[in-house]
Amino acid sequence: MTHIQINTQLSLSQIKDNDAHDLMNEISHQSVVENVLQVPYPYQLSDAISWINFVEQQKQDYQKLVNWAIRYDGTLIGGIGRHMKYDIESHKDEIGYWLGPNHWNKGIMTLVLHAYCTHLFQEDKLIRLEAPVFDFNIGSQKVLEKCGFKKEGLLEKAYRKKDQLIDACLYAKIAP
């Protein structure tokens, strides 16, 4: 499956070469970059092209789409995906997501995350989804909680970004 229709305007699909400019424009905001681990700032067109190539390579390697474009009326506004942190046959995985700031606080990510979790539980037969989020990213924590994730604890100094150690909250959701 390479397309998930969420409602009349919102969908998940494969990122394509012609999405490079939208990707660069949506993710290059400092407010987005501050809340994700491995996105360079400033985000260049070459970074977008590299990401698109990486997503295609993952699709070939795993024989399924792992990272998805979030689309509003067909235009890329964010991304969501599995990290493939554990073996492909594992019952669990870690997920991550981001959304361009012009689309924040509109309920979009809650709809997307709910649909994506349903997909992973039904199609990929996962039992447990994990989502670490920086401790200062309250908005993302609220989205996870609205989607049924439970906070399992604090991961102290779990990530390093720009030579700064960052605490993260670990959230998890178990398949219904």
Overall radius of gyration? 15 Å
* Biggest sheet details: 8 strands, mixed
How many helical elements?
Answer: 5
- Whole-number count of domains: 1
SSE pattern: EEHHHEEEHEHEE
Q: What is the CATH third-level topology name?
A: Aminopeptidase
Index terms:
single chain; 176 residues; alpha+beta; Aminopeptidase; eight-stranded mixed beta sheet; 31% helix; 34% strand
Q: Would you give an account of this structure?
A:
- The protein has 176 residues and is an alpha+beta fold.
- It has a single domain, classed as 3-Layer(aba) Sandwich (Aminopeptidase), CATH 3.40.630.
- Helices cover 31% and strands 34% of the residues.
- It is built from 5 helices and 8 strands; from the N terminus they run ββαααβββαβαββ.
- The protein has helices spanning 20-27, 30-33, 45-62, 108-122, 138-146; strands at 3-5, 10-13, 67-72, 75-82, 92-99, 128-134, 150-161, 164-174.
- The protein has an 8-stranded mixed beta sheet with strand order 1-2-3-4-5-6-8-7, sandwiched between helices.
- A hairpin with a 2-residue loop joins strand 3 and strand 4.
- Helix 1 crosses helix 3.
- The longest helix has 18 residues, at 45-62.
- It is globular, with a radius of gyration of 15 Å.
- It starts with a strand and ends with a strand.
- The model has no long low-confidence stretch (mean pLDDT 96).
Q: Quick gist of this model?
A:
The chain has one domain: Aminopeptidase. Helix 1 (20-27) packs across helix 3 (45-62). It contains five helices and eight strands; from the N terminus they run ββαααβββαβαββ.
